[in-house]
Specification:
single chain, about 70 residues, alpha+beta, two-stranded parallel ribbon
Length: about 70
């Protein structure tokens, strides 16, 4: 999170992420880091690969609206 805060100080506002970036919590960490400042960032993300209960990628693609939200 410190990296995101510092990058904003340096003028960076574009974050590229994915639910698979690890350890499978990257998007949650970004949400915490930008809390209260969401409109200051442009966020690109990739999605679709399913992750099972053991945090393993199943290599099955999930394009359901509920998952994509």
């Amino acid at each position: 999170m410190a990296t995101i805060h510092r990058s904003k100080e340096l003028g960076v506002n574009f974050l590229d992420t994915a639910d698979l970036y690890g350890p499978l919590k990257n998007e949650q960490l970004i949400a915490k880091a930008i809390d209260g400042h969401r409109n200051d960032y442009i966020i690109a993300t990739k999605f679709g690969w399913e992750i099972d209960d053991n945090n393993k990628v199943t290599w099955a693609i999930n394009g359901q609206k509920k998952y994509v939200k």
